[in-house]
Design a protein that fits this description.
CATH superfamily: P-loop containing nucleotide triphosphate hydrolases
Order of helices and strands: EEEHEEHEHHHHEHEHEEHHHEEH
Strand order of the largest sheet: 6-7-8-3-9-10-12-11
Strand content: 15-25%
Number of strands: 12
CATH architecture: 3-Layer(aba) Sandwich
Radius of gyration: 21 Å
Structural class: alpha/beta
Shape: globular
Low-confidence stretches: 1-18
CATH topology: Rossmann fold
Largest sheet: 8 strands, mixed
Bound molecules: adenosine-5'-triphosphate, nickel (II) ion
Helix content: 25-40%
Amino acid sequence: MAIDQSGTTGTPDADEDEPEDIVMSVRDARVSFDMARGQAWVLNDVDLDVRRNEILAVVGESGSGKSMFASALLDAVEDPGRLAGDVTYYPDEAAGESQTIGSFDEGLDDSVDVLDLDPDELQAFRWEKVSMVFQGAMNSFNPTMKIKAHFHETIQAHNAVLEERMDHVRKLFDALYIDFDRVMTSYPHELSGGIKQRTLIALALVLEPEVLVMDEPTAALDLLMQRSIISMLRNLRDEFDLTIVFITHDLPLVGGLADRIAVMYAFEFVEVGATRDLMKNAAHPYTRSLLRSVPSITSDVDEMEPIEGARPDPVNIPTGCSFHPRCPVADDRCEIEDPDLAAVEDDLQAACFYTDQAREQIDYTLEDESTGDDR
Ligand SMILES: Nc1ncnc2c1ncn2[C@@H]1O[C@H](COP(=O)(O)OP(=O)(O)OP(=O)(O)O)[C@@H](O)[C@H]1O
Ligand code: NI
């Protein structure tokens, strides 16, 4: 079937009788900045659902709006950016009130309108329900405080029971292969990048949020550490019943991690789908071009083709389909009409009028480990 009447995207539902279990939904989300050159749109009318317990990767080039989307999920867009639209969180009804650990008690049996929360509620919501590891946050540890003090501070700020929370942290540290006694008594500078990043992930999970948003959590790490964190995240999701939103510019990296992938171009989603479908046979020309430009161990340097053309300017987003100036299959229609996300397959949606042509004309090959096939 196609997309539902409310314009819901990201949730093509093959079985009408069994609606997807949604933990967060984003509708018409827009972020604007007033700039000397004019108004900049850095999130441009975005719709997406996050399914409970999934690992959803949000992928796009630098400057495409990924961090804006991540921040929107927690109403954390910084001034002078203005966020509008709807962001809704749906608590897990099965877990009920027993799920409450800290101080957030706003409408727990009901949906939560995130953009309506007052500052205190938002502060509680951000750690207890939807938690975020911000981009570059590895350097946000206070250098004068031992790691343990960071945990105590967060637990106390949420009026949670210290001993009980620290027991939980032990479990988190085990799952992340962190030595509890050594790391708790260390100062941040005494830890390696990989340990620091994993410690941050544990800190984000101390109040048992349902959703963990991670913005480029592996960008500063070497390839080996990136991969080891990726493999820990799947276990973490299973053991702690998490939903993970993983933001990255590295599409092949998330092939082995994510259940679904949402591809961002020019401040909106252009393709959303199940990892296997999207990696194996992407429908949007941008996704296909991105996959084509990926260097692989077996591919010749000659075969790599970076996407030509300039990245879109948020003050001057192209008319029609914003990818048309760089798109090999675009025609006159694409200059005028802006395609909506529409179902291409059961669990694959693309915002493009010419997905057949894109599949015919833009070739790429990927190694199996990038398609999610090896797990
Ligand atoms: N304070 C600001 N004022 C104006 N524009 C901004 C501001 N902060 C960010 N932007 C713009 O918003 C756009 C989206 O930024 P965002 O940080 O979401 O990109 P990103 O996809 O996360 O990129 P990266 O991979 O580099 O982190 C960019 O074009 C950026 O220049
Ligand atoms: Ni970013």
